[in-house]
Amino acid sequence: MLTDADHAAEFLTSSRTPGSAETPAPDDFLEKRTASYSYNVEEVPLDSLPNWRLGDRLTHASGRFFSIEGMAIRTDFGPTAEWCQPIIVQPEIGILGIIVRRIHGVRHFLMQAKMEPGNSDLVQYAATVQATPSNYQRVHGGRPTPYLDYFLNNAGRRIVFDQLLSEHASWYLHKRNRNMIIEIPETEDIAVGDDFTWLTLGQLRRQLIRGSRVNMNARTVLSGVSYATNEDPDSYGDLPDEFGRQVAESHRAGRSEADVSAAMTWLIDRKAEFSLRVRPIDLVDLDGWVYGTDCIRHRENRYFRIVGLSVSAASREVGTWSQPMLEPAGRHVVALICQRRSGVLQFLVQAAIQPGLTDRMELAPTVQLTSEPENRPPLAEYLEAPESWIRLNASQSEDGGRFLRADTTHVVIEVPEDHAVEAPDNYRWMTLGLLNRLIRSGYYVNVEARSLLACLL
C-alpha cells in the first residue's frame, strides 16, 4: 500500500516529465487561443457602469458578485497606526480547481487559457475551474462553467488538495476561495474543450519562470501540491540545477507534527502580540480619498484607485460586461530570502497583519511591497542583492478579474551560508515542507507567499 510520501514522490517525478507528444507546446497553445478571439477593455466612469450603483457603497443591482466599500483601520503593527481605504467585499467562496490525470503514466494538469480584463497579458493559464457562486449559478445569464461538476460532486475521486485559503488581504475584506486538486483515473473519459490543455508540472514551472503566463488563481492552487518524499534526491528527475535539488530537499524537511505545532504556536503568539480593529465607513467619508463619479482615488494618487471597465471577450461565459476594478499604483514586489541552514534550504517569512485577513495575521514573504512606502520595510535592502544571489526574478499578474494592471515582481534571493541575516522577532526561518504543511492546514500562509512558493515548483 502506498503511503502519502510514496504518492508525493510519484506525483513529483511524473509531473516533472516533459509533455506528451499529443499535447501542444504551452507557448503555441496560449498564443493560438489569444489570437482566436477578439478582446476589448476600456476604462469608463464609475457612474456609467450598467447595473452598478454608486452611493455610500458601490454595489451591483443584483446584490451579488462583489461591492466596493469603505473601511477604517487601527493597528499597532507596522509604521502606520491608522488609515482609511476602499476595499473589495466579496463574501462568496469561489472554487479554484485543477483536474489531474495520467497520460501514458505521467500526471498532467488540465489548464485553461483564460482572458481576464485586468491582466497586462490578457490571456494566461488558469485553473480548470475558476468561478464564484454568482458565476457558476449564472446570475450574469452566461454560459455554464465547464468541468464544474468535478468539484461540486467529487465522490469517488482522489482529492489531492482541498482547502479554504485567503486572498489579497490589503485589497479584499475576508475574501477566501476553495483551492482544490482532483485526480481522475487515467481510464476516465474526459472531453477537452478548445480553451483547455494538459500540462505537466515541468511545463508549468517553465511558464512560471517566464512570468505573466500562469494567473494568480492557478498559482495559489499549485502552491498546495506536496513533494514530500524520503527517497534519494535522484528520484526527483529533471531538476534544473543544484538550487532545484536544494528546493526538493527543503520540501522533504520540517514536515513533522512537532514542526507544524511549533510553527502554529509561534504564529498564535504573534497574533496575541498585535491588535487590529476594522470598521466599515461610507465611501464618501474616507479621509484622504477623493470620491468622484469617474473614479475613487487617493488624494496624492498613491496606493490605488477604483475605476470602471467596459469589457468584451468572446471566450468568456458572458461576451460583454462592465465592472469596477482596483488599479494599484507604485512599485509592487514580493521577495523571499532563503539560506542553507543546518544543511537544509530554509526560507525567511514574516508574521504580518493585513486588514482584510479573516484572522488578522498570516505568514507573508520576507519583503512585501504593495505600494511605494514612506518607510522601507525590514530587509528591503536585499532587493538590491548581487545578481549571483538571485534565483527567481519574474513579473506575475495578480487577480485579473478584480485588479487592473496589478503586476508584481516575484524575487527569490539565496544568501550565502556564512551571511548573517538580522531579522525582527516577527520573522522565522521555515523549510518548504513546513510551509506546505501550513498551506494545507488553512489560514496560515498569505496569497503573496503562496504565489512565490508556486514559482518554486
TrEMBL record:
Domain (dTDP-4-dehydro-6-deoxy-alpha-D-glucopyranose 2,3-dehydratase) ranges: 28-224, 264-456
Top-level taxonomic group: Bacteria
One of the record's GO molecular function terms: lyase activity
Protein name per UniProt: Putative 2,3-dehydratase
Organism whose genome encodes this protein: Amycolatopsis sp. SANK 60206
